[in-house]
Protein: Methylated-DNA--protein-cysteine methyltransferase
Amino acid sequence: QVNSKQGGSPCKEKHVVLLSPVGKLEISGCEMGVHEIKLPKMSELPSGAESSVACEVCEGAEEMPEPLRQCTAWLRAYFSEPESTGTLPLPAFHHPLLQRDSFTRQVLWTLLKDVKFGEAVSYKQLADLAGNSRAARAVGGAMRSNPIPIIIPCHRVILSSGDTGSYGGGHLLKEWLLSHEKLQKEKLAR
Structure:
């Protein structure tokens, strides 16, 4: 249950499961916005054939509130025609973390706005972008608490050394997302 910002009544939370090339993404939210996206834990990378899996809602398609409809449309586009994500509306977010004014929220919004598809930044670079160059550790904390992964692209934040670093969905998923974006970007450049 997620309570509204004013401490009023709890949201009528709905759940949707999206079958994606990386496994089942569990999305929850209400009429006000998306609460969270739960990533599957990957034990192996999908092969080329599996990565062409159609992205379909396999549970919860009926009575989907608008933010969840926008979220699934955005994620579908991300996996199948990522160049179109820039033209799609972002779903509203209704997670308490994204409603409070905090450094974490600022970092997540900065990441969403400034780090484009196919790009990567270090924790330190993201701290700079968010206005506090000495807060690389806090940026790591913000990435760990990101309730809307993939849309808020915490997988694009890597170590200064170039190593991918840790990720809520696991190391393999992070590598898959980064290489997916790199390949798609190269395709578009041709």
Q: What stands out?
A: The radius of gyration is 16 Å.
